[in-house]
Design a protein that fits this description.
6-stranded mixed β-sheet, Rossmann fold, Cytidine Deaminase, domain 2, alpha/beta, 20 helices
Length: about 550
């Protein structure tokens, strides 16, 4: 009995080699539409699927292979006599190899097409044939990936395609169709524009089943530690910031590099490089700060080490912002990651070149800046143009995944709870501090001076330790800057602002802040001991604002 292969592919890579081998080995080839024409144009004999089904393609090609003559030929078990007898009775023949790849939904869903246009790229017949062949993989070779064609040909030449290979190829089918269906599900469940400007009533932020559609971007050298394997997976249906990155120089990115790069870019883009060009904070936030960042075109620079900022600042120029970042912690920045919302210029590149850094990331680089940075053989230079836009965060736990909204809203209110109101010059620093401290591991305290962190404390199990740490660090940083004549700030005064990601359980933080010369505190409030903190502020003439929004980052 002649062997039959069904070939219907959107992407033609490697298909001529496969079809030529099969035809030369005496196989009959069934095909459809564009694939059939392509093979015939290349002198490969083809049987049109319509001649097998006895039914023409219809509905603009929506219905071609959805027919018992196709699926019975794929699904019939050769070791079950009743199946063999049924095929004879119905005058049908087996199909022994199925080679199909799917309509490019992954690509088209990102192309900004209308809903009607996007839906036309949902493949129905392709996944159906693949699933049928994968279910019956003992008798049918199923191919979805051109990378597997050569191995299948080698097995056929040897007269035996191992069952282990058939099983693996079948597994790849369900791996692909699961991601394909998940991308479609995510698209259909997301809010769609309506004439009233509201989301679709079918929008489900947390559906019953979590559809994730990811494709391996690259294998990594190792994971968090050298004995752990790792890989990077990227969305198939939405690019994301890292999905669109371009590495211009340096070693391959590792697991820790990617995590730190993600953190650094998110922190940098929290100030003015949002997907829609606005500061990504909530409706009720203080508008004057948005004006400081957007109207005055402030540039953000961030240094990250071990997945937490060791410096973050805004400046009129990148060199100004970077100078304040470096001054915040010139020790921890060594071996860290720098991210900027501005193009890197030669002046800043020369300063960066004085350090050992793992990564420098920015939307672009001047040619002379690249020339300077590329002198560092292993420095990874990353070009990132897309701002983070993922609406949710995912944390793996043993047996499942935690999903939550990304922390995008900054504050619910601006409530001055002390007798003293904030000085006008401190308000911008207070809001900067509250935005920046959200990227520090909890318990997090940040001391702020002139739109930059002067001291950062976090990752401790109580709040007074990082408070003392950040206050002491800030005092030391400013003292050193003044004594060395390398002052990055406009004045020599101590920092005036303290920001906290969560409420104060006791008055001890206020007391420590007062001793260090802090004049304004911003925190969420909400502790049963809020009154103690307020009273301590009033005693020392410190202004304190409650925001009503906590920003834990565990």
């Amino acid at each position: 009995m002649k062997k039959r292969a069904l070939i219907s592919v959107f992407y033609k890579d490697g298909i001529l080699e496969l079809a030529s081998f099969l035809s030369g080995a005496g196989w009959e080839i069934l095909s459809t539409g564009g694939t059939s024409k392509y093979l015939q144009d290349n002198k490969i004999p083809v049987i049109d699927v319509s001649s097998v089904t006895g039914f023409p393609e219809c509905l603009d090609g929506r219905v071609k292979t959805l027919h018992p003559a196709i699926h019975a030929g794929i699904l019939a078990r050769r070791d079950v006599q009743s199946h063999v007898d049924t095929l004879k009775t119905l005058n049908l023949e087996t199909i022994d190899l199925v080679c199909v790849n799917l309509y490019p939904f992954f690509e088209k869903v990102q192309a900004g097409l209308s809903t009607e246009e996007t839906i036309e790229f949902i493949d129905i017949g392709g996944p159906s044939m693949l699933r049928s062949a994968a279910k019956n993989h003992r008798d049918v070779i199923v191919l979805t990936d051109p990378a597997d064609y050569t191995e299948a040909i080698d097995g056929l030449k040897a007269g035996n395609v191992p069952l282990e290979l058939k099983r693996r190829l079948a597994g790849k089918v369900f791996d692909l169709t699961a991601a394909y269906d998940a991308a479609i599900a995510r698209y259909l469940l997301e809010p769609q524009p309506s004439p009233e400007g509201e989301g679709s009533p079918l929008d489900e932020e947390y559906p019953q089943y979590l559809p994730l559609s990811l494709k391996k971007g690259q294998s990594l050298r190792y994971g968090e530690n050298a004995h752990q394997s790792a890989a990077l997976y990227l969305n198939t249906d939405r690019p994301g910031a890292l999905g669109g990155m371009e590495q211009l120089h340096g070693k391959e990115l590792g697991y820790n590099n990617i995590r730190d790069l993600d953190m650094a870019w998110k922190a940098a883009c929290a100030f003015g490089l949002d997907a829609d060009g606005t500061l990504p904070i909530g409706e009720n936030d203080v508008n004057r700060f948005i004006n400081v960042v957007n109207k005055d075109k402030k540039i953000c620079c961030v240094a990250v080490k071990h997945n937490t900022p060791c410096g973050i600042a805004l400046g009129d120029t990148l060199i100004e912002a970077y100078g304040k970042v470096f001054a915040c912690d010139p020790v921890s920045i060594f071996g860290g990651i720098i991210a900027s919302t501005a193009k890197v210029d030669a002046q800043t590149a020369a300063k960066l070149g004085e350090l050992f850094l793992e990564i420098v990331a920015a939307p672009d680089f001047d040619d002379d800046a690249l020339e300077i940075l590329k002198k560092k053989k292993n420095l990874r230079i990353i070009k990132l143009k897309k701002a983070p836009a993922e609406k949710h965060e995912y944390i793996a736990v043993d047996g499942g995944i935690l999903v939550q909204q990304s922390d995008r809203s900054l504050l619910e209110k601006w409530e001055v709870v002390t007798k003293t109101a904030p000085d006008a010059r401190d308000i911008d620093d207070m809001i900067f501090g509250m935005r920046a401290v959200t990227f520090v591991k909890s318990n997090a305290i940040m001391i702020v001076k002139e739109l930059s962190a002067a001291g950062i404390g976090g990752g401790q199990v109580n709040r007074i330790w990082p408070a003392r740490q950040s206050l002491e660090r800030s005092a030391a940083v400013i003292k050193t800057a003044v004594e060395t004549g390398n002052n990055q700030w406009k004045d020599t005064e101590p920092a005036r602002v303290l920001a906290s990601d969560a409420f104060f359980p006791f008055a001890d933080i206020v007391e420590a802040a007062a001793e260090a010369g802090i004049k304004a505190i911003i925190q969420p409030g909400g502790s049963v001991n809020d009154k103690l903190s307020i009273e301590a502020c009033d005693k020392h003439g410190i202004a304190m604002v409650f925001t009503g929004t906590r920003h834990f980052k565990h």
